[in-house]
Sequence to fold (624 residues):
Amino acid sequence: MITVLTGGTGGAKFVWGLAQIVPPEDLTVILNTGDDLTWWGLHVSPDLDSVMYALAGKLSSDRGWGYDDDSFRCLERMRNLGGESWFQLGDLDLATHLRRTQLLDLGKTLTEATAELCRAMNVKQRLLPMSNDPMRTIVVTPDGDLTFQEYFVRERWKPTVADVKFQGEEAAATSPGVLESIVRADLVLIAPSNPITSIGPILAVPGVRDALRCTTAQVAAVSPIVGGGAVTGPAGEMLKMRAFSVSPAGVADAYRDFLDVLIADSQDESNRQEIESKKVQAAFTNTIMKSDDDKIALAKFALAAVAREAAR
Amino acid sequence: MITVLTGGTGGAKFVWGLAQIVPPEDLTVILNTGDDLTWWGLHVSPDLDSVMYALAGKLSSDRGWGYDDDSFRCLERMRNLGGESWFQLGDLDLATHLRRTQLLDLGKTLTEATAELCRAMNVKQRLLPMSNDPMRTIVVTPDGDLTFQEYFVRERWKPTVADVKFQGEEAAATSPGVLESIVRADLVLIAPSNPITSIGPILAVPGVRDALRCTTAQVAAVSPIVGGGAVTGPAGEMLKMRAFSVSPAGVADAYRDFLDVLIADSQDESNRQEIESKKVQAAFTNTIMKSDDDKIALAKFALAAVAREAAR
Fold:
């Protein structure tokens, strides 16, 4: 049994790679819902949808987000009608959010709504939102607080980040299955996602960090930092803000209380000593996922690296 | 000042014709909202939208309903996701309902939301929903009650109609401007719409029928019944159910307590005596609106017929 913690677009690629080599019933994916938003009155779960679409073979490969071969006709008219338009929902994508919102309005939890969407899209892996409670990632900037999507999409991650906090953190509970899937896994993988704003919210849900510390499973992460910077997005700046170095060693540091193995890019082999000084095993390979083969190769490498470590 | 009561697709054509010959600031349109529905969690106002789209030059002429040149990609995916799909919302149309719902959620009334949508669509005539309260047309059938759209769209008006009632009728109030626009008009026109389910709900909002009886304006209607049947839809069956004859005279009967002039189709000239026996003046012309010229000619004829009657 493999459990993956993920958020963001790199995570969706990594999970897709795993899904090509692991039977669907053996794969549980715990998803960041800290950057969920209410958009046009609809409940949108960007990270969850990226993984769901990827596993359904419907993630747009052009854009890296949203539904494949989508159009933006409704969005264009919304703009003309005076509606907000900085968050782009395609016509096909829109159906996901309409249906999810409908299911939530019927009283279903986000976990149940996700299961129903996955069934309809023929996604057989188990996708678990980190929480069914509204816990939201807030990016604190010198000009005020922004929701994650305001910061990331509307402001194109240009504002200086003073802090990241999680609104509703104290009241949030893990959704059913999350803690069990960590504690009972044979292997826990942390996708190459932003440690602060993609994985950070999951770790902040009460109980998750403890479960990662207590699980007898090996816990391995793939570094989203390659060659001194993030592959995409603001992970570098976020690590710096939290006083971690912008390197695989910084990622290992962020996860040091529960991490067994860090998989980093071959160009960062010089980091090995620093990573291992944190009692985290280091393994190096190509981590940049350009092609489907890259994604599968990285997934295979991750499984092999952890198996080696477990056998030591 | 001209005030039109309308619902349905014939009404949208008639209002478009009027708008070509009357300055926009002189035209107020009171719209049936009895067949509004909540669809995919959104507030949909089919009759209101048909008129708004017609006046914006965006009503689909192929379909007679919905937005011009629309696509149905979101609908198709909703179907695949297990959502209901018998009521067809196009991708462009969807923006209207998303935006309206958003404005209503912000606390605006349907009147205010309609004004904002009209501004954005450059519709300068005044469009007034009959009520801002949820008054809904219910079609009573031997197999139970149906909402109007369930009866009309989902069941393709096949069920036997035992009765038509208006849920929330007692609690509904006319929206701001409705009664004034009837009482203060120089002319009130009733579009060629179903007297029971398109005009009927407007007449059932407390105060409207009294205002029509009291107004000093001439009140004229265009018969939706031509040659012994409805031009489209179930108006014939509905009239029969209410014990009116399925003829222009039956329409005059349905409106006899406030109607001054009935405009009917030339093929129904034999109805003149029966209409006029109800103290309603009859005027005959081509009322079938196939082309834009037909729509304009009917509008011109209506204004002239009423002017003649007023001068008597």
Notes: Residues 184 and 215 of chain B are 7 Å apart (CA to CA). The radius of gyration of chain B is 18 Å. Chain B has a mean pLDDT of 96.
